[in-house]
Amino acid sequence: MKKTIAAFVVVAFFFGGGAFAHFGPTFYVPEVPPGVTITIDGDDSDWAWYDPAYVIDRTYIHEYHVGAEDPSVEDWDGFAMVAWTQPPDNMIYIYSRVTDDKYSAIATEPGMYPSDDSMELGLDANHNGGDFREPEDINGKDAYQVGIDAAGTIPLVVNNHPAEQRWVLEEPWFVAWANNPGEGAEDVTLIYEMKFALWDYVGYGGPDDPETQRHINEAGQTIGMYLRWFDTDYTPGSRDHGVMAAPVGALEAWRNADFFQDYVLVAAEVSVEAQSWGLIKALFK
Asked: How many CB atoms are closer than 10 A to CB 19?
């Protein structure tokens, strides 16, 4: 039994005066244990502690367009591990490994959004939900998207915030690593690894702006987030597949955080017997 709860409808809740919603499964995110340091370098050896029952694999990753078929595992396969730390580090960590029959990507200009083989996140730390592209299709709110593209010389991290708010994607607030197999390479393994701070409000003046509110991670919290991957095999600049750790129909997550998934932060001291949950299938032997 995986550490998720499936609920394939949009449900709105009210708690503590704030409205929030989620779409699809609820994922549980383990805390990085004391004494473990994760280095963002694409090496998964510092994830050896991770309980396989928390891994997000193809059981939960689907084509998000209604009526479209999931890619075959020979075409695209992948999984992700998500973890968190409390202050003073206060970060979210993600490691994702993808196998792809063909790597296709164009080096994306700074500020342009990846449209080829890449990974994307949606983040809504305070779980407010709602349309984050209004007014005028500009994201100035607490929810936003981030794209990680390995096509350039370094991973490109972009989002749809106004330029004055994109400091959230700079180190040390967002650190990303991805490999670049080279345009047209076949039967490749793509690695995406990252750590980032969460924000309840992103001020125009940077982290010291009085309006900026950094989110404080705590066990038991639920944050809104989605994980999405794009696959391009034939025409650079177009996508053959878009898959999410979400049920079919989650397309609106590109603009509405009500279609994000719930990620519940679990304390390091909470242990679950491996035999109670079982182990996931062997990945990428």
From this structure: 13
Residue with tokens 């390091």: 268
Higher pLDDT: 139 or 109? It is 109
pLDDT tens digit sequence for 198-216 = 998 888 888 999 988 999 9
* Residue 95: pLDDT over 50: yes
Among residues 24, 27, 23, the alpha carbon closest in space to that of 2 is found at 27
What distance in Å separates the CA atoms of residue 234 and residue 184, rounded to the nearest whole number?
Answer: 9
CA distance linking residue 224 with residue 245, whole number of Å: 13
Global pTM reads: 0.83
Start-to-end Cα distance in the chain: 22
Q: List, in sequence order, every residue forming a beta bridge with 98; answer none if it has no partner.
A: 78, 190
DSSP 209-252: STT-EEPPP-TT-EEEEEEEEEE-SSSTTS-SEEEEES-TTGGG
pLDDT tens per residue across span 7-61? 222 222 222 233 445 777 899 999 999 999 999 999 999 999 999 999 999 898 8
For the chain, list the domains and their CATH numbers: 4-277 (2.60.40.1190)
Single-letter residue type at 150 = A
Are the beta carbons of 67 and 47 closer than 8 angstroms?
no
With a CB cutoff of 8 Å and minimum separation 6, the contacts of 211 are 201, 203, 204, 205
89 Cβ neighbours under 8 A, 6+ residues apart: none
Tell whether the model's pLDDT for residue 173 goes beyond 80: yes
Determine the 3-state secondary structure of 283 from DSSP: coil
The structure tokens 């550490």 sit at: 3
Per-residue buried b or exposed e for 71-81, using 16+ beta carbons within 10 Å of the residue's own CB: beeeebbbbbb
Place of tokens 């900026």: 212
Spatial separation of the C-alpha atoms in residues 189 and 82, rounded to whole Å: 19
